[in-house]
Design a protein that fits this description.
The chain is α/β, with parallel strands linked by helices. 48% of the residues lie in helices and 13% in strands. The protein has 14 helices and seven strands. The protein has helices at residues 10-29, 34-53, 57-64, 72-79, 121-126, 134-150, 167-171, 174-185, 202-206, 227-234, 241-248, 252-257, 276-294, 299-311; strands at 98-105, 108-115, 154-160, 192-201, 213-217, 221-223, 263-265. Strands 1, 2, 3, 4, 5, 6 and 7 form a seven-stranded mixed β-sheet that branches. A hairpin with a 2-residue loop joins strand 1 (98-105) and strand 2 (108-115). Helix 10 (227-234) packs across helix 11. The protein starts with 9 loop residues before the first helix and ends in a 15-residue tail after the last helix. 38% of the residues are buried.
Length: 326
């Protein structure tokens, strides 16, 4: 699961190799080198702590895309074992990049909706590499309306670089599908919790992202555009993606500071891909806390609170200029 090594993880990879070599040497030669092994393990822990405590925004983007990172169905299988997937938008087809259906989460009926990527090339083609199409958003809206009718909370898992920009997607009105979702999600009278578990890119993310609470995993990102897309527009070259990531202020900590994210969900040491079970446990604890709070509110309180939350995004300053009438 952990074969992929990111550039900034190279020092840890070297230490792990040395530990493995010493363990093999000890096993074959019968010589006790446990002192050296323990020293290297301590150094590995220290190195890892230093690296992950000082990640740049671009490095966090890389972690959010790690191929071994848990996806929506990985979390759902651990948190909601009775999840029943529902398919189709009742208009065109079933978009496999978005999954959803009713489930039970810690004794509470919920509606789960999320974007889904694939692990290998075959599954990625099946899931359209996590790029939803119009029918995916219309399927999601159908499930949200079912949840609203049944008066059960909605939980969305967001992990997508963006909505699919292909010709067919445009022909079937991808922008309209996302816009309708935004409008309709503001009218829901049930709790809506949105969790960015990996990538939260552009309109592809916001189409599932209008919630009473927005939670974000520690190494996930949420942005109006991917760093590569931003670099291609501003610098005309994708190699400037690291600079774009710095400018976009897309990390969990920055989003919390700006008031866009309500809470940051911690990840296991080294990232969620290191321990799926622990990552799901931490996410489940955060969800339970937010649901307990939101389920005490009335439908109108939830609806107005969601509207007020998004109206409050952004800030500006007014400054009086000498010689200019107010």
């Amino acid at each position: 699961m952990f074969e992929t090594t990111l550039d900034f993880e190279a020092p840890m990879t070297e230490l792990r190799k040395k530990i493995e070599e010493l363990q093999k040497f000890s096993a074959t030669s019968g010589i006790d080198v446990s002192t050296e092994i323990n020293a290297l393990k301590n150094k590995l822990e220290q190195t890892a702590a230093e690296i992950y405590a000082n990640l740049t925004p671009w490095q966090k983007v890389q972690l959010s895309r790690h191929p071994a990172r848990p996806y929506t169905l990985d979390y759902v299988s651990r948190l909601c074992p009775d999840f029943m997937e529902l398919s189709g938008d009742r208009r065109f087809s079933d978009d496999k990049a978005i999954v959803g259906g009713p489930a039970t989460f810690r004794g509470r009926k919920v509606m789960i909706i999320g974007t889904q990527k694939g692990r290998d090339m075959k599954e990625n083609v099946y899931r359209n590499f996590g790029w939803p199409q119009p029918e995916g958003y219309r399927k999601a809206l159908r499930l949200m309306r079912l949840a609203n009718q049944a008066q059960i909370p909605i939980i969305t898992f967001i992990d997508t670089p963006g909505a699919y920009p292909g010709v067919g997607s445009e022909e079937r009105h991808i922008a309209e599908a996302i816009a309708v979702n935004l409008r309709e999600m503001f009218n829901l009278t049930v709790p809506v919790i949105c969790v960015i578990v990996g990538e939260g890119g552009s309109g592809g993310a916001i189409g599932l992202g209008v919630g009473n609470r927005i939670l974000i995993m520690e190494n996930a990102y949420y942005s109006v555009i991917t760093p590569e897309g931003c670099a291609a527009i501003l610098w005309k070259d994708r190699k400037y993606a690291p600079q774009a990531a710095d400018a976009l202020q897309l990390t969990a900590a920055k989003l919390k500071e700006l008031g866009i994210a309500d809470a940051i969900i911690p990840e296991p040491a080294g990232g969620a891909h290191r321990n799926h079970d622990e990552a799901a446990k931490l996410l489940g604890e955060a969800l339970e806390k937010q649901l307990d709070d939101l389920c005490r509110q009335s439908g109108e309180e939830l609806k107005s609170g969601r509207y007020d939350k998004f109206r409050a995004f952004g800030c500006f300053e007014e400054t009086a200029v000498a010689g200019v009438e107010s």
